[in-house]
Amino acid sequence: MEETIEDLGLENDICVKKTDCMGHCGRGPAIKVKPDKLIYGWVSPADIREIIWSIVSGKPIERLTVKKKAG
């Protein structure tokens, strides 16, 4: 992901941080987008470029968005 961000010239706009378990192992690999508090699950390498553009545009990717449980 970091390489794609650099290739697109967005290294000053998007920061990637590795983390421990976020509690979404069953939906992994997962990516958390801040400050939007979105979590993308079931992410594959083919999704990376689309995720980066969703961050830039501010438009979430519904098919990857992990929904919060009601209640």
Provide a quick synopsis of the model.
With 71 residues, this protein is an alpha+beta fold.
Overview of the structural elements:
This protein has one domain (2-57). The chain is built from two helices and two strands. The protein has helices spanning 2-7, 48-57, and strands at 31-33, 38-40. Strands 1-2 form a two-stranded antiparallel sheet. A hairpin with a 4-residue loop joins strand 1 (31-33) and strand 2. It is globular.
Terminal residue distance = 34 Å
Order of helices and strands: HEEH
> Proportion of β residues?
5-15%
Low-confidence stretches: none
**Shape designation:** globular
Task: Characterize the largest beta sheet: strand count, sense, and whether it forms a barrel.
Answer: 2 strands, antiparallel
Structure summary, number of beta strands: 2
Question: In terms of structural class, how would the helical and strand content be classed?
Answer: alpha+beta
Question: Helices, strands, pairings?
Answer:
Layout: H1 2-7, E1 31-33, E2 38-40, H2 48-57
Antiparallel strand pairs: 1-2
What attributes characterize this protein structure?
71 residues; two-stranded antiparallel ribbon; 2 helices; globular
